[in-house]
Each structure stands twice: as structure tokens, then as C-alpha cells.
## 1
Amino acid sequence: MVQLAGKIGRWAFLLLVLLYFAIPMIAVLFYSFSGRWTSNVLPDIWTTSHWGEAFADERLRAAFVRTVLMAFAVLILDVLIVVPAVYWQRVRNPRIRILAELSAAIPFVLPFIIIAFGILKFTGRIAPEMLGTPWIILFGHAAIAFPFLYWAVDGAMSAAHVVRLNEAAMTCGASPFQILRHVVIPNITAGLAAGGMLVFATSFGEFALVQILAGARFENVSLYSLDLLNNTTSQVEKLAVLTIVMFLVLFAISIGVVYVNRNRVSLAVPGGRAMAAEKDL
Amino acid sequence: MASEGATLQSTTGTPTPTGQSRSVMDRIGGGLAAWLPALPLLILSLLFLVLPTIELVVHSFNSNPTNLRFWTAEFWQGWTLEYWIDTLQSKGSVRAVVTSVRLGVICALISLVIGGPLAWIVSRMFTGKRSVWLSLLNVSANFGGIGLAFAYMATLGTFGMLTLIIQNTGLNFVPPEIGSFTSLVMAYEYTNVPLFVLLTLPAMAIVRGEWLEAAETCSANRWQFWRYIGLPVLSPFLAAGCLLIFTWTIGIYGLAYALGRTASTTGELRMITLQIGLTLNTGAGKEERAYVLAVILLIMACASLLAYRWMLRRALRWFN
């Protein structure tokens, strides 16, 4: 009897949690297909026209392209600066690690709004002409997103025994650049992929830096969404479409991360990484 | 890791000097070579993370913020506690700090109460069912910002789906106002609970099934098992998870802005992140107070993270 009650309790609990997570997603999905929805449980009229309207919207398309291009640019920049740094801290100068770990801790602890505020004031004093340009967003996003790649790449290099690979390659007379290109990178692709996807996702969904540092001068999907949310009620369905698209992109990324990390599930979140990092020490 | 680095230093780090007299240029070259590949990363983090943070802290204490030339007399005359005193005396700012802390604590506790059992159940699931739940949790943990704010309104707004469902059962249901404390807690938990589960999931594996069997053999019931064995072992991990949720919750901005902007401009809702955001966006309120609030948030986040690391180190005793 007690066991049965426990089982039912567990079932009810899981069901409630499932509903809590599922209902908002279903609601957004229904909104994107609803012609009118004011009094019934389900939309009064169903329609697919919002999807066509949304994709025909010039402003939405521009915001989307901007967001995607920015996320790719941030990803490329981070790969270019993080991989050599991690390689060098492992094979040549371990003192790099102290500074790099300290830097990686900052975006992990500080809310992005504070980082945005600081960048606004600091850049405003040093180079005010940078404000409002895509460049400041690029560097800002690269700075707040790099820890994901740093931790992933560092873990991957540790697992691939890069130090030994490096010694072997050096014995064969390879230059550091050749080693990085032909030995190290092929051995850390999984870590690179997982970290890279998180970098992409961070830039893709970011709001604080874009709003504070560029505002309307660099309208990305988050800013456009906010505008749709604030302005008129007639645009709600378009916002529903946009939210679903954003959601699907992030969904694909998170599934990708889980897949790449399938043997180390906890590493998919920053805290899990920190936990794993602690374990290494 | 450390030993790996040390051996490396001795083998490749210091090339054997060809003569006793290495020139100064060689030394500079060697020093540069030791840092060069990491320089872009370090410079980026200096310019976009370290210096901006220092800037905020200095501004909160200095009345001459346009002049950061520390070698001049004006800079040193500029130091003051005026902004801090002014901010701590302003009712609105104090309310902002209190609300943010309250929100952080309540969200962390709810995450614990829902996320703890959920993590335990998920950790005991079979692989297939488990990966379905893991994907769901991952997706929810990544859903945030403006999209989540809209999803909240689509669910519990005036014409939200859940609102309509409940009203259709005949109840006279009025959903909590958008931007109220309750609405923020509910929206925040949508990402906090999954994050908490993902954070504590690895720890759940240390409580072994055999322990439960052993306890049952000694005729302990479930409650006794959790009270005397399970929770004491897990509590440092759960506390660490709570601290991290607290740290993240007090810093959430996009979601808070989308849900609470209206309530914030009328003064009904005051939170640290919103005060800063509104000051920067509309110029409303004193900018000096925004600096002080930012530093307060910074201190709270750092303290909470340090406590988290300490707790985790305690917890990890059980791993070895």
C-alpha cells in the first residue's frame, strides 16, 4: 500500500512538473497558429498566416540575419583566441592559466547587465566612437562567452594528452603552428564542438549587452522581440512565431551539446563544468 | 595537471641557454614567446571584463569620474562615500536591494524543493526515459529572456492559455499581475528548476542503491533513510546548487525587464538589475546610484560564488 502511494505520488509530481514545462511552450505554439483567441481553452480560429507574415517581415529577417551572423563571428573570434591560449598554457607556460581562469570566472559570476554597464562607461571614456557599433557587441559577446569554450577545450586537451602529443610532434620537428593545426585540433573536435555551440547560443540569445551598448542601432532578435512585446497587441502572433524559431535554434544547440557530451551529461551547464573542474583538482 | 605543467616547464619551457650570456633581446623575445599565443585572449578580457568592472567600482567611490588619471591631485581629492550614503538612504534603492535578495532566496528555495526530488527521480530513471527528461530540462534551462517573458504572458496573461483553462472550469480566476513578485518568481523558476536539476544530478549518483537496501535490512523506513543517510550526504551539494541559483537569479535582466518594466517605471517594483537598466535606458534616476547598486550586486554575486566554491569543496570529500 505504502509503495503504491509512493508510486502514485511520484507520478503526480512528474506530471505536474511536465505540465509546468510544457504548457508555456504549447501556449506559444498555439498563439502562432491562432486567428483569434480570447475566451476558449483553444484558439477560436486557427490559421497559418502568421508564419508567412513573419517570414515576409523585412525587419524581422534583418534582425534574424544580424543575430546569426553576430553569433558566428563571436564563435570564430573565440575559437581563434581561446584555442592557442589553452594550447600554450598546457605545453609552454602554465602561468597563463592563472590569468585565464580568473578571466573566465568573471562572466560566470557577474550578471551581464553589470558587465554591459562597465563596458559602456569604460568604452565611453576611452573610445566613445565604438559605442553603438557591431564591433563592441562582437568583442563584448566574445568576452562573456569565451569561458564556455575555454573550459570545454581545456578539458578536451587534458583528455587527449596534448602534452605528450606535443612532445612527439616536436621530436618530428613540427612547428607549434603545425602541431596545433594537424595534431591538437583534430584531437579536440568534440570539446570544440560542445564549447562552440554554447558560445553561439550565448551570443544568439543575449539581451543586456546589445540593449545597453547598441540599442536600436544593432537590432537583434531579442531587441525586436521586446519591441513586439511592448508595442501593439496585434503583433503578438508574430512574436509567437519568432519565439518558436529562437526556441528551435536553442533546442537544436542544446541537443547537440548533450549529444557531444553524452558521456558527461553534467558538463552541459556552466555550473556542472565548474563542478567537474573542481573534481579534476 | 600541475605536475604535468611542471615537467613541461623543465623540458620545453626553458630552452637550454647556449651560452652564459643571453642578451636582453633574447630574454624579452623568450618572455614574449611564452605569452604571445595567449595575448589576444588576455587583452580581450582585460579590456572587456576586468577594466570595465574596475571602472564601476571606482565610479561608485569617486566624485570626479571623468578624471581617472590617478597621478593628478583632483583624482585623489575625488574619493568620497557620498554616493554610498545617498544610495543607502534612498528608500527606492534599499527596496531594490531587498527585493532582489528576497527574489534570489525564494527562487533558490523553490528550486531546492522541486528540483531536489526531481533530480533524484531522474537520476534513477532508465537510459531512454532519462534522456527524454534530460533534453526537456536542457531546453527549459536554455529558454530565457524575452521569449520566456512572452511564453509567460501567453500562459498566465489576461488571455493566457492557463488563465482561459481555469476560467473555463467556472472559477473566477484572476492571474497575478505581470511584473508582480509572484509572476517573477514563477517565470524565473522555469529556468532555475532545470538548472538546479542539471547541477545536482551528478551528485545524486553518490547515494547508492545498496545503502537504501542496507537501511531497509536494518528496518529503517524511507523517511529515516533520508533523514539520517541521504540528506546529510547530499546536503552540501544541494546547498551549493542553491547558492548558484541565488547568484544567477539576482543578476537576471532580460526576463525581468520584459516582465517588470512597466511596474518598475511606476515604482511598484524595484530590483537592482531593473534600476540599473532603467537608469541606462531612460536616464531616469541618479546615475551615481546605479554605480553603487551595481557594486552591491557585484559584491553579493562574488560572496555567493565564494560560498558556493567552499561548499562544493566540502561536498567533494565524498567523491574520494
## 2
Amino acid sequence: MTPDASALRLEARGIHHAFGDLVVLDGIDLDVPAGEVLVLVGPSGCGKSTLLSILGGMLKPDGGQARMRGAVAADCLNALTYVFQDFSLLPWRSVAGNISLVLEGTRLSAAERQRRIADMLALTGLSAFADAWPRQLSGGMRQRVGIARALAVNPAVLLMDEPLSALDAQTRALLLDELAAIIARAGVTVVYVTHNLSEAALLGHQIVVLSRRPGRVREILRIDRPLGERRASDPDLLSIEERLWALIRDDAAEADREIEHV
Amino acid sequence: MSEHDAPVPFRAGGFLPREHPLAGAATLIALLLLWQAGASLGWFSTAFLSTPIGIARALISLAASGELWVNLAASLQRLAIGWVVGTLGGLAVGVAVGLFTLARSPGMALVSALFPIPKIALVPLFIIWFGIGEGSKDVTLAFGVFFPTVINTMAGIDAVPRALIRMGQSFGLGRWAILRKIVLPGALPAILAGFRITTSTAIILLVAAEMIGAQHGIGAFVLEAGNLYDIDNLMAGIVLLSVIGLCTSWLIGRVERALLGWR
């Protein structure tokens, strides 16, 4: 961890939420220690994304509370920062313009802004695409812009909502490796929602399995090995994937047969 | 069972019309030639329908006498003032209706009640209120432009993906920054599409208002020419209106290309 990195932990206490009569989250307690990656997995409709919205202050829970504790680095411009499944790029801004968006109106000088944009573009391999429109980019490159934009504000906590699930399998595998390296290097606290169990095993220090509606914490698995030392083919990770699948399988089959309520 | 031994037939032909700009121009030129030939060969009387050459002569002599410029200037000024005022008002109300709960239902109720009124019917009322001079004409145009602008602006704002607005909020952008950098650019395609409608609405109302009470302006000119059975001048006025319409739509096309290059 760099010396001036944030050390912010995130806590969920008794979080309860319902959409109308439909209870989606019921008594969720979680701790995300500073610098660790917590992965939320569970069958579709178990409230993973809802929980992520609550953790970042984008949705008011009906009950319970999300809290943040700890120090935030001086150069952090937005402590709780999202990476979105659909990228959420402004189509009328170039790649550099999309990153610039979240730096404009902050205390950064124009020169510092330009430098941060250039750094983030370099970090995510986008330097050659600074002036391209989002529509000209592939899905993988668009999500790189989303990641660059999130890192540009030097976040204390990254909240990632299935960031790779809109991508094809090959792009996903490539970007997953990069993401793991970036997370390991930045030393940020991460909450990562996914339905992909190998992503969970590769990225998570804690893997929280949520049950089908109403979402409750069913089990928490820990993997203490540093992200940099993990390979998708590691036998222990594969066996964790199998355990996760065994936990989710029946719920997932059930969820698949359900009629959409929301 | 039936035996087959043949190439697979291609079945996906047609339903793909293509553009031929030359064919479009040729059609217009051919029609003009036919029209002129019809008059020259005496197929119809030029007392009821002018000819392309007659219209061109009328336009040239109007330009030479200066009458053309007086009328054109009067009309363009009304068009500019009325359209700009109506557009600014419509944008302001449209943004308010698109963003604020407080403005939405009252604003929409007002628009729904007043939009269907044919604005031409209001010209006599506006003349009573604002006098026979420029005021009543500018107000008529502004009023007619206002409502479609409100509706298009609101629809454009409604169509901005909420996910983009939430993204802005999640990065801590302020309300003003979200409005200026996310909402308005997102609504711009719909707003510019609305401009095409409002400029043609404005031209219609311009002519109507000028016919009801004006000394100068293309509407007044056309009406006067009609009263004098001066078919050449009458149709020259109509051609001028068509040219004004073409110019505004060309201008909007340029603005669209400049501002919407990201699409």
C-alpha cells in the first residue's frame, strides 16, 4: 500500500430493503476491511446490486445502515466510487472527456487534471484513444474507460457492479487479469458484485454468498492469498468455485423459474 | 419426400432503397421544364398559374426596385425575434417541467390545454392586446414556437438515461454540473429535432400574421399581389417562403452536424 493511500473500511449493519411487498435484503451484516476485496455472489435477483447501491449511498435502505470508518487520503476526490456494468459513459464526450468529467469542478488545477487524465489513460492502456468517441470503442475498451474514470478520483472504496458481465468471454478474461493487478497495486477497498464464480475466486479476500430472495448472508468464504499470486487454474481456487456453485446452484435454478416481479 | 440437387436460391433481396441525389435534382429540373413548356405551348393560361420564367422575372424586378428587400427584412426580423423568444421561453419551461416535480404537472396541464388552440385564431386577440404593429406578430410567432419547444425539451430530458445522471451523482457532481454536462447534452438531439418543427411552424404563423395586418412582409406582399391578380408576384412570394424554409432547415442541419458529431 502506498503511504498516502486511504484506509477506509465499509460496514453494513442490519440492512433491510424491500421494493413494495418484495423483500430483497433482510438483515445484512458485512465488514469490508480497508484494502480488502469483498465479492458478493448469489443467484439472480438476490439483491446483490441493491446492496451495492446502498453501500455507496445511491439507495436509501428501509432499515439498517451502511457506515464508513477510517482515514481518506488527502488527494481522494470521491471516497465511494462506482464502476458500472453498463459503463455509463457520456456518449457526447471523448474518452479523455469522460475522465475529465469527474475531475472538473474539483480543487485540481487544469494542469493537474490533464496529468491525472494522462496517467489514467496510460494505466488502462487507453493513451492512443484519448480523443475517440465511446461508440467507436469495443466493450472491453469502454469498460477500461469506466475503470480509468473511477481510478482518476483516487477512490478510497471501489464499488464494482458486475463490471465484466457485459463483455464477451475472451475480453472478460483479459480485463479480469488487468483488474486484479490494478486492484492489488492501488490497495483500495473493493466491493465487487458478480455472478461469475471464477471472478469471485480470483479477486475476493472475502466471498459473501447471498441466498435467494429475501437476500440473506448464507456463507462467507475467506481466501487470504494475495491477488497477485492467484491463477485461475489453481486447484484451491477451483475447489472454492465448486463450493460456491454447490451453495448457489439450487437457488439459481429456483430463481431461473421465477416470473419477474420488479 | 422430394429430391433436391440445385444451388441454394438467394432470398434476401430488396427492401433496401438507396439515395440518388442526382435523381432528386433531375426530377425537380424536369418538372420545371415541363411547367415552362406547358405554358409556352399554351396548355394552360398564365393568368391562373405563373411560369418559372415569369416568377424569375418578378423576383429580379422586385430585387431591383428594392421592394424585395423591404419585405424580406420585415419578415426575417419577425421570424428571428418571434422564434428566439418562443424558443428561449420553451427551453426554460421544458427544462423545468423535465426536471422538477413542482413544475411538471402544472406545466403539462397548461401545455395540454393551450397547445391544441390554432394559434392563427389568436392573432386578432393579440392585435387587440399588443396593437397592429410588430408586437402582435412577434407574440403570435413566439406563442406558436413555445409549446412544441416545451414538449420536445421535456421529452428529450425524459429520454436521458437515468443511469448517466446517477453516475454523475455517484461521482459527487453538483446539480448544475449534472444539468449542464449530462442532462442538456443528452436532450440536445430531441431539442434540435424540435427546432425543425418550430421553424416551419414559425413560417406558417408569420405569413398568417402578416396577412391579417401588416404593411410589409412576404405575407402581406402575397396577399396584395393576390388582390391585384398579379400571379407572377404572388408566386414569387411563395417561392421566397420556400427558400426561407430551405435555408432554416439547412442551418439546423449544420448545427446538428456540429453539435451531434458524437452520434
